Amino acid sequence: MVDAPQHAAQVAALKHLLAGDDWAYSGLFELQLFTPYIVGYLLVLMLSWLVEIPLAVKLVVAAAVVAFPLAGARLADEASRGGAWRWMLLPLPFGFAYQWGFLNFLVAAPLGMLFLFEVIRARERGGWRSGLLIALWLHLLFVAHILTAFFFGVVGMLLLAAPWSGFRGWIRRSVPVFSVLPVAILWMWLNRSNAPSSEAMVIWNIGIHRVVEFLPGLVSSPDKLVGQLVGLLFMAMPFLLGAKPKQEAGEWMPFVFYLLWMLLFPHYLAGTFFTYQRFGIFGLPLYMLAFDWRGAGAGRQEYLRSLVPGLVLVCLSLLGWQAIRASTFNREVAGYREVIAHAQPEKRLLTMAFDPISKASVAPLMVHFGSWYQAEKDGLAEYSFSEFWGVPARFRSGAPTVIWQGFEWRPDLFEWDGYRGELYDYFLIRHPQSAEHWMAERSGGRVVLLARSAEWQLYARSDQVAAAPPHSRSNQENRP
To answer: Structure pTM?
Structure first.
């Protein structure tokens, strides 16, 4: 999960700021708790009083991954009275958002499923209580992930349009959805002056590649070719199981909106990359909701006894594939654990991942990996998401840091004076070759190698090594 270490670092900073302790780096930060990305952080923060922050992150992510198919199954039971298609929900949470470690999005995903559950109940039952529940769920979605709240707000309105009873009736049923607008407008008004990235150029990146990526994203496949085959299978499954497409066009509008989102929504918006890709996991549930499952499988018991086990096997095989990837990744980061053990706590670390790629994923899993140091050892790790305007623990204006967004992809630009190398106690490098000569050249001989294991290398300022207690200095057997 690419960004997971950064989110762990956010929680570490947030915990110190709320506690008001004597953390050495508190003066660099300011709190902004009114943010639409807070729910995931608060869940990790609450758990962090019981377990260490890295484990708290894993527990929250695991809970979100488990909650998504459970929430989707509840939606299936309400909308279509269940069905074998619930098995297809199991591999979905391990898609693009999981590989990139979008913590708050993953937490918001099952909340979105539960929001749709309440929308469908409200459509069938009506009443002010149903409207109130819709409003409460959407407000929770807003503080979990603003883009997800927008997506599901539109989907919810489209669901409320069916069966069509006129424009006025549709707007009246949609009032609970509109209730989130004042809060969203207030947040945007309060943060506009502090969010220059919100006015950045929009990058659309529209092309045929979106069509090629559509089916793999729909089924969260780790491989594009396998994703095409599994995607076709899953889309054919309603017909194979005997479900009928719903006749009213309005029932298909949520899935049509999803198609337009995946094909036409921007790639970069308001300082956020990968805006449309992460929403692939919602397509399959919206597609299944467009079918009438009443009577599906009637008179076809022998057929289903052979089809459904095959579907289950495909879904469990996709989960097994994810387990293999996790095992591969775990072996690759063993070297990090070895070298970071030589770093003293409460120091400042700069990560330079010249080789951020893992065999486990096409995503650059190692690019932010050094941020685990901040979560584990109460230090400060950079590059940091704390420069972003939507995070709860943000760098103050004028904070002594010059490592801005973009450096993480071009660590070769580092030089001592331009990037204020004197601010950092440690330099974590990932490269298949030794970086000793390069670091000596760029630092003017101000750093020494502490430890190296596989591609992971840890360097320290020479004065830090001289001042360190003897037992914490480098073990020379780790030198290449």
So the answer is: 0.92
